[in-house]
Design goal:
The structure is a homodimer. Chain A is an alpha+beta fold and about 325 residues long. The first copy, chain A, has 2 domains: about 120 residues, 60s Ribosomal Protein L30, Chain: A (2-Layer Sandwich); about 170 residues, Phosphoribosyl-aminoimidazole Synthetase, Chain A, domain 2 (Alpha-Beta Complex). Chain A has 8 helices and 14 strands. In chain A, strands 9-11-8-12-10-13-14 form a 7-stranded mixed β-sheet. Chain A has a 5-stranded mixed β-sheet with strand order 1-2-7-5-6, covered by helices on one side. Chain A has a two-stranded antiparallel ribbon with strand order 3-4. In chain A, strand 5, helix 3 and strand 6 form a beta-alpha-beta unit. In chain A, helix 2 runs parallel beside helix 3. The mean pLDDT of chain A is about 95.
Chain lengths: ~325, ~325
């Protein structure tokens, strides 16, 4: 690998990225916190720390823009470790000649999202690079959150857990792609991009015993479930007919040959909860404005260890593996 | 301004960047922590949090590379708030086609620097963008440090304080420029890029009463002193003949028409310390391997409020203002 070059797929959240992380990042920086490869690192016992760079193209898309995404994406990563998001950094890398008008729109949108999510931007950085040295604007947000109870951990997932997805899948990925390619199809579709602070708070009550949740961004729901099955050693079975997929997403996906299961979401969680609390948690999620389309889509078992299996509508079984290539570069 | 465009100078750490920060960033995100515009934000009373994106060009330069710089720059920002640097995030944005060999060199160098500085990389992100959408590789590191004693604050700077610079100035900026332009002049010059953890620890003893220190990166020593004078309302007087400037830097600066006072440093601090401890602190700094060329270069007073003045070798006075334009884009 050392003599090769980086492909787009190395940034796609799939197999190649996993290889890159293992062969380079963990080789050099491996430590007990980083090795967990969770959405946030837990440091000093009760502090969650996370980072993400946003390179989405186009920077303005139906349902949001790079500013809103940069805030909500990092907020959601903090939430996934069971933390209350509190502080964000905001680092802008801007191409010379970028308009102040666009910058203003992006920052206003980031401010609005930060306000809604209850986080303060406390530090930042601005770099400007020459024309042609960067495509418009990239934003990095890192986040710090406070863990009050116990940190959520992938290790808590247990056989019998029900798998809930908090809303329809693929909306973000497909709407970005339609916008980028200038396709008129599915024009009512908007990205699901949103900070899920309220939703997370509502399900994190001790009584519900939520074991784990994760935001299925790059690699989509399929990618995240494959990764979880792989790292827990458990089997995950989901049912195709229970997957909430909007008609526009289904149609566009078929037309473009893209599987919505691997398409990025930016305002969804996949939640693991013990069976006896699953219906109650589903109801609570559905009361949140970002959770109305939530569904129980499957369960965790011990057959098919380390594997995620999709039960298709026609009664077949399909292994849901990590995505191999890059479906949609610059999706977030 | 809203109808204009971003210039390179908006990223140069000077007047235009200050305007951009005030008119856009503080307008939207202003809060008591961010408004201080310190190198690190102090959150939860004893935690320092900082971020920086690195876009240096060329990515390999005499004395370092973008990996070393991304670690040391963020470590130094944490040190400047009086914190012990502990945790770093590492977010890579890579151009498709970038070689694994270069990536490996950069990461190895980041690892080496992190080890020396006593920080762990605990979280990260990798994005890959298409060929031509980014020039090679940009790195964001955010950092978290623990403040054990009192946080250093610009407010502690007082009249009578001596100003110490911990080493020769302009080495980083000039060596990057010589390398970028392929100039053969001053080929023995290397960047001062380094994590100053040891140096900071050695002067942060309560007995020394160090009031404040800052790393004079973008905008150089002149830019930082102008900014400090401006935000404290105090006057700062420095003496030209006491400024440690290497012969190669002096020569290259004259040749290129660049003032080393405004040229970026990546392994230097400018330290403010009460007069009665200044000689002792200078001696301690000189014992550190990165502090051998330290000098007391001036003092803080109440004449010339909000202004930094340079006493020239020929007995004149020159006002050191914030840099106006962009001397050296992509210097860090």
């Amino acid at each position: 690998m050392d003599n090769g070059n980086i492909f787009l797929a190395h940034g796609a959240g799939g197999k190649l990225q996993a290889e890159l992380i293992h062969n380079f990042i963990l080789k050099y920086f491996g430590n007990p916190v980083l090795n967990l490869l969770e959405d946030s690192a837990v440091i000093e016992k009760s502090i969650a720390f996370t980072t993400d760079s946003y390179v989405v193209k186009p920077i303005f898309f139906p349902g949001g823009d790079i500013g809103k995404l940069a805030v909500s994406g990092t907020v959601n990563d903090l939430l996934c470790s069971g933390a209350t998001p509190r502080y964000l950094s905001l680092s802008l890398i801007i191409e010379e000649g970028f308009s102040f008008k666009k910058l203003d729109t992006i920052l206003r949108s980031a401010k609005c999202e930060a306000g809604g999510a209850g986080v303060d931007i406390v530090c930042g950085d601005i770099k400007v690079v020459g024309k042609g040295e960067l495509d418009e604007i990239f934003i990095n947000t890192s986040g710090v959150g406070i863990i009050n109870g116990e940190a959520l951990s992938i290790k808590k997932i247990a056989p019998g857990d029900r798998v809930i997805v908090t809303g329809s899948i693929g909306d973000h990925g497909i709407s970005i792609l339609l916008k980028r390619e200038g396709l008129k199809f599915g024009t009512s579709l908007i990205s699901d991009c949103a900070s899920l602070t309220g939703l997370a708070e509502s399900i994190l009550k001790p009584a519900y015993e939520v074991h784990y949740f994760r935001d299925p961004t790059r690699g989509g729901l399929g990618g995240v479930l494959a990764e979880i099955a792989n790292s827990t050693g458990l089997g995950i079975e989901i049912e195709e007919e229970k997957l909430p997929i909007k008609e526009d997403v289904r149609g566009a996906s078929e037309l473009l040959g893209i599987d919505p299961l691997y398409s990025a979401n930016e305002g969804r969680f996949v939640v693991f909860v013990p069976e006896d609390h699953s219906q109650e948690v589903l109801n609570v999620i559905r009361e949140d404005k970002f959770g109305r389309e939530a569904e129980i889509i499957g369960e965790v078992g011990e057959t098919n260890p380390s594997t995620c299996v999709l039960l298709t509508k026609i009664g077949g079984k399909r292994i849901i593996d990590l995505p191999r290539g890059e479906l949609l570069p610059r999706i977030c």
